[in-house]
Amino acid sequence: MSIKVWPGTPYPLGATWTGQGVNFAVFSENASGADVCLFDDADSSTESLRVRMTEHTDQVWHVFLPDVKPGQHYGFRVYGPYNPSRGQRFNASKLLLDPYSKAISGDIQWGTEMYAYRMNDEQDDGERDYRDDAAGMPKSIVIDPAFDWSDDARPCTPLHKSIIYEAHVKGFSQLNPEVPEKARGTYAGLGSEASVRYLKELGVTAVELLPVHQHVEDQHLVEKGLKNYWGYNTISYFAPHHAYASAEPGSDVVREFKQMVKNLHAAGIEVILDVVYNHTAEGNHLGPTLSFKGIDNASYYRLSPANARFYIDYTGCGNSLNVLHPQVLRMVVDSLRYWVTEMHVDGFRFDLAATLVRGEQGINKYSAFLAIIHQDPVLSQVKLIAEPWDIGEGGYLVGNFPVLWAEWNGKYRDTVRRWWKGDEWQVAEFAYRLSGSSDLYQTSGKRPYASINFVTAHDGFTLNDLVSYNDKHNEANGEDNRDGDNHNASWNCGVEGPTDDPEITALRQRQRRNFLATLLLSQGVPMLLGGDEYGRTQDGNNNAYCHDDEISWLGWQRDKNAQQLLSYTRGLIRLRHDHPVFRRPKFFQGRKIRGQDVKDIAWFNLGGVEMTDAEWNSNSVRSLGMLLSGKAIDVRDEHGEPIVDDTFLVLFNAHHDAQRFVLPGKTDVRWGLFIDTAEETGFVEPARTYQAGQTLKLAERSLCLLRLVEGEESSVTAR
After folding, report:
1. 336: closest CA among 392, 298, 385, 379?
2. Are 535 and 557 in contact (CB under 8 A)?
3. CA angle 281, 287, 292 (to 5 degrees)
4. Which one of 129, 351, 600, 713 is the catalytic residue?
């Protein structure tokens, strides 16, 4: 096969169709040469054409092939020394995925030839393997990026008004009978009319999708008949994972993803991607060579200064991406911009974000990664959410990411769980978390919406299992239940899993309602784990990363209890949307109204008087009242006029016994009770009214929400 070959250009990186042909460009600082290899399809074992990339400009190898069109399968072979002890792992016998692939076809067919070294019992990677692995390698695909975005409009929901729903593309719609069968478990399924309607009726403003970048199914999981379901095993930062598409791999997968985004945007729902720039699927020094290792191992990865054969691993996954290298950092930023500008996503949640801000001497708050995002006119304007930790030394950074960044607030999760479990010494910490975590964010110039509040996430128990199990049950993972953190349940019921005991069942259901109400009535941004709205279970598995099956998928055949919980969750979300007092954009600080100092928040003990210092520092206080002022919320409408809301009183009882709470205020004050988690449905209809000074009985482990229905707020909150 003959083909025209032109020099091409070093920019843009990757495979770019110009309308007259395709420009191929790949960065490698240390390679001595590179080939682009063309294949007929993903299953081809040998290339139909291999072209030497003779041009080398600014450490980028490049060539232009005028006869190539979208749909062409390709890969790279890169030349250089194989010397692991010096950090060099070049092996041109191995086909490599383009780091800038916009689409990928095929899955790895695992075999020993997928490794750049000759495998042996000593686990020595020093000897190069010369076998060609093209038959078992996925292939990159040239795409046509054309798509009609026409009237697409970003919702641009302010973060303080956001309610985030963490979901998995496949798991969300795989079992939904209302989604067309071919579309179930795909981008098209998530963007279908039935899925969008469900999310809209639930009331969430954004979906946070578990990784959609092309990922690898780990060899050890494949051999066990399992999969890397969550997808935290990225091999391409530009390509949507092809297995989540109903379309055939290539340009149509990209278009299907774009259509999903467009459909969600039309319903006012934003799309946030969970992205994994901290490590890749190539693992440690004994891992496979699939892309970055073979292109330029010493540039793409952080290597041990003592022995470049080994990787620095802050992630627990074998390697750490080297964002200290300018070209690797460029790849990360190019990827982020691509998903915003070309795919129209609205933000990112950065997995193990602490790894991305590590310098040579540890954590660096002024890292190039943070600096380049802050000055970027595109990326600085989207939602940026850090998972603010990794497993390295000093890697727990909750409260330490700079302005523009929100954080998964791990302290919120841990404190709220401890509170409802009945642990000691929690009341002061619990109050901080309810009120927006000012102790973590206020002094750095941030707002309450820097705190992404959550009780459960993909990693750990579901909400139902959190209140139903004392220990993890990960037996189906094939690791003898050794994997996963053994987080204690929120309430030590002494009974594992399903039970016929009506008292235990009722208390578990109450605890679910307690957690959901706490989450949605707290200042900050609530994140709801997909399925918690109706009580999804994983049968006690708190590390279901490897289950692409009913353990992980959302169920759509729901019994009475599930429907009741769903209705309750919708009601809480509607309440949050309707009342800005629950989603203040500023921290509490008090205001003057008609010359009088009025508290915007107040805390009460069981006697209906404000908490004392002794009570805040007590190890035994497990009941608390929180009053939120509707007049002092310091929120204005689009015309700059102050917004006045209702005043609410939230009562929390984490004690194992019922408690009596004296309702605060003067005699002209009346309160309306409309949420009581001790009720089967959660909502009290019609609302019951109580006069200030009356005693309200709080059931054991329960929450009540009351609205001020008569009297002046000043009768309750005046200093």
Report:
1. 379
2. no
3. 55
4. 351
Residue 710 CA to residue 613 CA, distance in Å, equals 30
662 belongs to a structural domain: yes
Contact indicator for 216, 108 with CB cutoff of 8 Å: yes
Helix (H) or strand (E) holding 414: helix 410-421
Read off the CATH number of the domain in which 623 is found.
2.60.40.1180
Residue 63, SS3 per DSSP: strand
Establish whether 600 is a catalytic residue.
no
Residue 641 lies in a domain: yes
Please answer whether residues 340 and 377 qualify as being in contact, where contact means their C-beta atoms are separated by less than 8 angstroms. no
- pTM (predicted TM-score): 0.97
Alpha-carbon distance of 186 to 380, in angstroms, equals 30
In the chain, the N- to C-terminal Cα span, in Å, equals 87
DSSP class of residue 639 equals: T
Q: Please name which of 281, 279, 143 lies closest in space to residue 215, comparing C-alpha atoms.
A: 281
User: How far, in Å, CA of 485 to CA of 461, rounded?
Assistant: 10
The burial of 461, by beta-carbon neighbours within 10 Å (0-12 exposed, 13-18 middle, 19 or more buried), is given as buried
Residues 6+ apart with CB under 8 A from 128: 82, 91, 93, 116, 117, 118
636: exposed, middle or buried (C-beta count within 10 Å: 0-12, 13-18, 19+)? exposed
Length of the chain: 719
Distances (CA, A) of 385 to 105, 164, 272, 451, 689: 30, 11, 9, 9, 41
In a domain, residue 474? The reply is no
The total number of structural domains in the chain stands at 1
Specify the residue for token string 């209906």.
608
Digit-coded pLDDT (tens) for 572-625 = 999 999 999 999 999 998 665 555 667 899 999 999 999 999 999 999 999 999
| Catalytic option among 113, 387, 390, 676 | 387
Instruction: Render 584-599 in DSSP notation, one character per residue.
Output: -SS----EEETTEEE-
For residue range 89-140, list pLDDT tens digits in order: 999 999 999 999 999 999 999 999 999 999 998 899 999 999 999 999 999 9
Amino acid type, 511 = Q
3-state SS track over 193-244: HHHHHHHHHHCCCEEEECCCECECCCHHHHHCCCCCCCCCCECCCCCECHHH
User: Has residue 579 been placed in a domain?
Assistant: no
Q: Indicate if 351 belongs to the active site.
A: yes
Which band of pLDDT confidence, cut at 50, 70 and 90, is reported for residue 469?
very high
> In this structure, what token pair is assigned to residue 503?
């008292």
Residue range 646-701, pLDDT digits in tens: 999 999 999 999 999 999 999 999 999 999 999 999 999 999 999 999 999 999 99
Q: Which domain holds residue 632?
A: 588-717
